[in-house]
Amino acid sequence: MSVMTLRNVEKGGMGGTLGAYAAVLHVLGLDGDLDAVAAVDTLGRDLQDAALPQSTRTRSASRWKA
User: Fold this and answer.
1) Which of 44, 42, 19 is CA-nearest to residue 31?
2) At the N or C end, where does the chain have fewer CB atoms within 10 A?
């Protein structure tokens, strides 16, 4: 890993690859925490879904009758 890549990861820059972040976590002994990142987060999913805009259009019943 180059010094520039490491600096980018340390600063939290968007140019760092996932592999670079994983390598740094491995060196620091924190690579086991990657499992927690990949875990299903039901509360986070519910919060994300709650922030979605709701449709304001309603369908009229007569429009969909055959």
Assistant:
1) 19
2) C
